[in-house]
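For the sake of transparency, this paper describes our internal protein records without simplification. Because each token names a local backbone shape, the row as a whole describes the fold. One such record is reproduced below, unchanged from the form in which we store it.
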Amino acid sequence: MMKVRATMEEVINELTAEEEVKAVVEKEIGELAIKEEQTEIIRELRDLPPAHYIFKIENFSYLSNAKLESYESSDFEVGGHKWRLSLYPKGNKKGNDKNEHVSLYLVLAESNAFALHKEVNVYFKLFVYNQIQDKYLVVQDAKGKVRRFRGAKTEWGFDKLVSLSAFNDASNGYLVDDCCIFGAEIFVIERTTKDWNQVGYTSQVFVIGGYKWSLTLYPNGYSEEKGKCLSMFLHLEDSKPFYSGQKLYTGFILRVRDQLFGVHREQKANNKFCTSANNWGFTKLIPLSDLNDASKGFYLIIL
């Protein structure tokens, strides 16, 4: 009986340790969410890694001990533009943080030779990897808020990505063996003056998994669903690698964001892409009656 009890206590202790880590992470997210309620920032944990860029730093202590205020990643390209991540290991003093948080920003790279009058409108997410939970802490602006990058403002991000006390405690999983991992997802929003009811819109080309893709949106429906539903398709832009008969098996999700309540409309698919089939998607992604009902949060006009 004593052996059984001892074994149970060991199991309970292991579970308790895991729960303590989870509790600390959830507490950190909760406290920051309360503080940032007025600034409309969302924090959540997810399993999937960043789709566009991962920024791994080894020997983080060297950065935090150095006199450099910030550290930048190499350039990477998304949506036809080049970007960088800018990390402030002890917080951005310009953001009046008083060195209490790690700060992280998305920067429009100087290599774009960006004209002062031009702008890029972007919705983005920044990430910190929790190496114990094997999950990513996602930090993003609420309600799908779009940030405007231009010559006079080439940097947007978060002064209070995660508190230094939580980040530097290895038991929380952000900084383990002096290594930490950050990331980014970037969605470029193209402005257009075309009629919303035109046949279709095609997004800029983006790269995931080493392949070039685009999305085609039919706001008034495609084929038999015209006038009934919004339709969307994923298109493989470069099918040259498949001339020899190869096929690319792909799992993907097409989603319409609910900007008010977070109850998104989405459909999942697993399809093979090849030279004869480089388009897959859904003609009935969301009924137009739901899309055009502003109270449901799918279609909002933000001034």
In short: Residues 1-5, 30-38, 192-197 have pLDDT under 50 and may be disordered. Residues 201-292 form a domain with the Apoptosis, Tumor Necrosis Factor Receptor Associated Protein 2; Chain A fold (CATH 2.60.210.10).
